[in-house]
Amino acid sequence: MEPPTSSRLNSRKRRKDGSGPNGATEPDGIPPKMSRCSFGLREPAPFSDEVEIDYSKPYIRVTYEEAMRGTPLERPVRVYADGIFDLFHSGHARALMQAKNLFPNTYLIVGVCSDELTHNFKGFTVMNENERYDAVQHCRYVDEVVRNAPWTLTPEFLAEHRIDFVAHDDIPYSSAGSDDVYKHIKEAGMFAPTQRTEGISTSDIITRIVRDYDVYARRNLQRGYTAKELNVSFINEKKYHLQERVDKVKKRVKDVEEKSKEFVQKVEEKSIDLIQKWEEKSREFIGNFLEMFGPEGALKHMLKEGKGRMLQAISPKQSPSSSPTHDRSPSPSFRWPFSTKTPPSSPANRARNESTVTYDISEDEED
Question: Which stretches make up the Cytidyltransferase-like domain (predicted)?
């Protein structure tokens, strides 16, 4: 599978007047493709004593103008950069990247000083020389590593490694009784300046460790390192353990406070929602109550309507005024055949009949 490269990203969106890392114009806005068989992309850079050099060919340095125009592939510009590279960080990598991109066709050789030279001229290092060699080997911009590099560059060393230019930042580097160890390189026209990366250096990293020493000591004790390995006294070890316990208690208390705050917040949110729902339901209930029992409510209309129906049901119907009236003749009285007595009645009717005695006289009796 072909590895992804940054040259593919937004290659068509670049302007045609854009320039490459060395100031060269890229044709049609598309950067040139790099070879995938370089050492830096596949494996660590080799050491100088492992690389064969053809000394049969004479060593002729290229000028700065020739290097900027570009040299043939078989004759790259050999650039040398040296340093301690303790606690290898992004500032080191950026400096080597600048050295690699000084010219269109660059072969970068990096020299790393040994522990003996570094301790004598600069000071104690965190990483030993083998660790520093290995760190520089795995930087993608490095083509070759020189172990036990000299502190001051001599003409013999430059000729042995066939160096064309020396890359370093332009700040004078005073050491070994000299105001600037690169002064003779600058006078020979072999110096190629690079820029330092602000905000990052080996001294800054060591300063952070010294400033936060207690934090890192406690962390490593917690991870299983012994007090002897960390050069921590018995009293400090107990102090760090006590601080660790106190921090754990504080963290637990803080977690409980945060959880309680979250719980209270959730209760408040739910109570607010519940109150809003209650208000909505109460408004709806009051509205329905007024609609049913209010002055103009449905119950009043129902009562009026029921009252009207009841009155209409119990009131008699009047005869039409336009209907003709008929004289009704009184019905003839009933009498028992062959008897002048009234028919038998109940005791109540009998009393009533005694008080009022009526006789039915017909026309035949008068005669």
Answer: 80-208
